[in-house]
Amino acid sequence: MQASKAGTALPEKKATRSEHEFQNLLRRLELALDASRIGVWEHSIEQDGILWDAQMHRLYETGETCRLVPASLWSNAIHPDDRERAERDFEQAIAMRGAYNSQFRIVLPSGEIRHLRSRAHFYVDAEGEPSFIGAEWDVTADVLLNAELARQKVVAEARALALEESNARIEHVADHDYLTGLPNRRLLDKRLAELPADKSITTLGVLHLDLDQFKQINDSHGHAAGDAVLRAAALRITAAIPANGMVARVGGDEFVIVLVNFTDLTELKQITEDVQRRLRKKIRFGQEMLQSGASIGVSWSGDRRARNLFAESDLALYQAKKLGRNRVEFFTRQLQEDLRSKRRLAEELKLGLERGQILPYYQVQLDARTREVIGFEALARWKHPEKGVLAPGIFLKVADEQGLAAEIDAAILKSVLEDRLFWLLHGLAVPRIAVNISASRLADPALLDKLRKLDIPPGVIVFELVETIFLDDSDEKLLAHIGDIKQMGIDIEIDDFGSGHASLIGLVKLRPKRLKIDRQLVTEVVSSAEQRRVVGSIVEIAKALDVEVIAEGIETEAHAVVLAQLGCDGLQGYAFGYPAPAAETDRLFSSMTSRIEKQKAAMGS
């Protein structure tokens, strides 16, 4: 019994302890749910109501505490745009007797919209009724975060795409000419660098072309007309070459064509002739028809020597322009040898400048009437250590092509000023000394500052400009620059007047101190009445503009007499002395004096 009593008492104690543990477990679960703000609900399918805990009321902000709420409370709280889907999700769970999983928005009484996540499990209760027990929690922060992340991703992708497109545009702009849309020199260089590795190439040709009359079109009709010519040329060249070819604009009016895998030289010539034929056609610009053309240099090979071909075609182009423009010239080995010789000469010339080998030689200028000395012209000579004294005709053209002309001008002027000072210290006063100035030197924006640093006395230095530098193509900026030089006390002379095609308007604009009649007009002046009339007309025009006239190339006394009679102010030529260096000052002056005395005596007798 006792045993029986003891046996019956033990289960009661276990039951009490289990109930206590269960209650503790429930409290901990409630605390956990409360801490995580998860609401719990239960719904019997056969009934209309839903059992909500306190957290559910807080999620929906109902302000109530009742356990049983109508299903409509839940349904009506769902956002209208989400309601149908949320109810459909629940109906599918009922039909499947399976888990319920949904996410939707609710509209709180305050109008605020929150995002909720709802999950439930299906079960059958003790009475056999099918039911769901579930939980809901606020996922607004997660939804907004995900939305922001998605937005940021879209923005990042858009920026990446925009950057990629921008880089592509930048790359395109960097590689193409803005005016014609053609590849530029940068892209051409890339293509030429790639060609040696392309083993599919069997033949390769490079055409280097320069538009003829382009500068005249620009000057006469304006830059808009020039742009129209360039665009038309780009279209015409592109239409003339095969699809596997490339045309690039590499300079103002320069284009380069790269052709690959043409059949033979005959086909290459046909393409070249077609390009030239198309470029000869007139271009309509407004109401005007513009006429251009092209000089073309061509080089080709059966291998992939792209770099060599580019240099060779450039040399061939130079030859085409030198021979009269609007023509095609193919590269030859003789041209190559000429190119090598010019390069060697250019290197030697640079070294000669560094070593002071470029010196002035002086030729006297006389008054045409009194035969008194009125000045010297300083002529550049190269005292080459191996070849002796070289005349300017040998090196000045190369100097101009290599950008050394301005350096030669500066070296000559420096030496002239030093020689003049030496003569003054020895009692020899030279009224003025004329030095040549190149177009590149004249265009130097720093020229005025350089001249000021030399502290040149007014009236002692004369700058001789070749006629073709300015008289037809002068602009206001150049004329203003020359005006500033005049203000410094440096006179301006026009050299070789009559050798070009100068306009009177250009002469009036420039207002030089004097001009020098070209020796070609002087040569026949004694024997040709027509030449005398030409020279006389030049003198009359000069006098009308208050410009002095010097005749150069005087080789005989007869020339001197005739030109003095025609009204020339000054004379210069071999008849009065050959050019000589400053080191031979004594011979220069004594020879000059003796010649003049003899000529005066002859005239007196």
From TrEMBL:
Coiled coil: none annotated. Pfam families: EAL (PF00563), GGDEF (PF00990), PAS_3 (PF08447). SMART domains: EAL, GGDEF. InterPro entries: Biofilm_reg_signaling, EAL_dom, EAL_sf, GGDEF_dom, Nucleotide_cyclase, PAS-like_dom_sf, PAS_fold_3, Rev_trsase/Diguanyl_cyclase. It comes from Rhizobium leguminosarum bv. viciae. This is EAL domain-containing protein. Transmembrane segments: none annotated.
